[in-house]
Amino acid sequence: MGFWDTMSCHFYKRELPPPGISSWTKMRLDWIDQSKIKIVKPGEKAEFILGPLEDGSSEILAARIPVSESTYYVIENRQPIGFDKNLPGSGVLIMKADDSVAECRRGKAPVRLVDSDPSVQNLEGAAFDVGKKNTFRDEKNGFKVQIKEKNGNSYRILIDPL
């Protein structure tokens, strides 16, 4: 997760407070109300507004796409508000999680950030956004995630079968 989750890397810049924590970490700690997590199974089509993770008043704070018994994708919207003031960027983050992995060891991790721009070092360009890279495809599991538009700090997201 790099600089996107204080549990992964304690600060983005040494002189600034640390960033907030990811939706994956919050879900594991049961810090997100289940009603604010949108579940979308592969093969299903869903369109919804994804509010910033740090805005507890948003109707949907994260989306989860299960792809096996232990693996799933998590989608979140990170904006420079609240504890997220000191992020390396902003936009929609997509993570692949595997609950069969207990901790980061020997090259395995329970969650990995999908990097929308690997040419930018340290996952600093990981966020998807309108006008940049706005589509993620998982050919193996047969779905795509599109960031359709941004309105204020929220995004309209479309998850669609391939």
Please give a structural write-up.
It is a single chain. Helices cover 4% and strands 33% of the residues. The chain is mainly beta. The strands form 2 sheets. Strands 1-3-4-5-6 form a 5-stranded mixed β-sheet, with no helix packed on it. The protein has a 4-stranded antiparallel β-sheet with strand order 2-9-8-7, with no helix packed on it. The longest helix has 6 residues, at 23-28. It is globular and about 45 Å long. The protein starts with 22 loop residues before the first helix and ends with a strand. The relative contact order is 0.20.
Number of domains: 1
Please tell me the overall pLDDT.
Answer: 91
Query: What is the terminal separation in angstroms?
Result: 27 Å
Number of strands: 9
Strands of the largest sheet, in order across it?
A: 1-3-4-5-6
Instruction: Count up the helices.
Output: 1
Relative helix content: under 10%
User: Which structural class do you get from the secondary structure elements?
Assistant: mainly beta
Radius of gyration: 15 Å
Low-confidence blocks of residues: none
The string of secondary-structure elements, in order, is HEEEEEEEEE
Q: What amount of the residues lies in strands?
A: 25-35%
| Largest sheet descriptor | 5 strands, mixed
Shape assignment: globular
